[in-house]
Specification:
about 325 residues, mainly alpha, three-stranded antiparallel beta sheet, about 10% strand, globular
Amino acid sequence: VHRASNYLPQLRKEHAFWMHGGEGLQPGQAHRRCVRLADGSLLNRYWDERDTPREESYREDVETAGRSARPHYEVYRDLRAGAESGWDFSSRWLDDPYRLDSIRTTCILPVDLNAFLYKLERQIARLSAVRGQHACAEVFATQAETRRQAMDRYLWSDTRGAYFDYDWVRRQPRDNLTAATLVPLFVELANGHQAARVADIVRQRLLAPGGLRTTEVLGSGEQWDSPNGWAPLQWMAIRGLQRYGHQSLALDIEQRWLTIVSHLFERENKLVEKYVLRPCTEHAGGGEYPLQDGFGWTNGVTRKLMQEDPLHQANRCRAGRCELDDQPRR
């Protein structure tokens, strides 16, 4: 822990990046990545300084904006902010889940971003205490707790039993359930009641034969939607559920994921960036570029899960075949 405290300057610099301009905001105002809500709560959004087409997707962005009735600069900024999120792109950011030109990323306060910032604030507080910087530790511990309370007010729905993104412009929760609902468990922000409710809704609505669905929206044409699954989302879900004692569901997601990964490995001798969450011969699609082979997060997550579940059939996979029992295949 003491060695980790050497990185306090970097952690504080990262936090300052996300919180820049937040202190002076009045209720209802936003600046860059900070939004001050009506009750004075401060939460974060994705943002980009530029309101022009992305260099790497210039033609595509011009075409997308051309289909929208909104000012083109708004669409460009929302596309850039969606790319900053890593979920580029997903129905999660869209008004119409089947129209990319309806993207409104900067109007949305995301569950996962704010959960990660909560974890960052907790970590800065912890490491500051280790260094004897107790005033700093108290400031960041207070910020983390204030964020947790704001997330409970704006991002948690006890009626539906899950965390949802919040549309701060329209002052209402989003209604699209996504795998991001598990990130508060991953960072240990949720209480036991919330974790149990999330586990229930995930079991009922986000489980697929190959693991955890990204969203419930099918056929949007965007890669961060059904039927695709992504390794980092499996990892956060599994670890988050384990931390609250939901071992059975965590194991179920793990086993389903390893099964789908080994299914493609047996057929094509490779791991890939993302997967269709059912046994099939098709590759995961959607998005703006071809499926990537040998992706780092798939390699890392799969290897770690195989180590933790040595009896899973994935541990007997070899290039070209996968032994499902003790007898070699013919």
